[in-house]
# Entry
Amino acid sequence: MNLTITGHHLEVTPALRGYVEEKLKRVTRHFDHVIDVTVILTVEKLKHKAEVNVHVAGKDIFVEAIEDDMYAAVDALADKLDRQVVKHKEKNGGNHREAGALKRQSVELE
# Structure
């Protein structure tokens, strides 16, 4: 997984970088086919915005969160991203299980 963290009007400190990396580990715990992750942290007046673009096989997932504090924005971003990744995983992973499920197979009684 390639991780890129950039800051607009903000210096990305080692503490902030470590916090973002720690929060994004949760995504790889649910879905390990992540190819590339790009995080953009922005400060606009009094609003702190965190954006992430996750590239997985066949789809890009984009999530953004705006809060009064950068750490709160990263927390909200991680929660939203976690829900989107789980939704993507369930949507793509269910096709193989349905075809071989016992409910779908016909049973003949003698």
In short: The first strand starts at residue 2 and ends at 8.
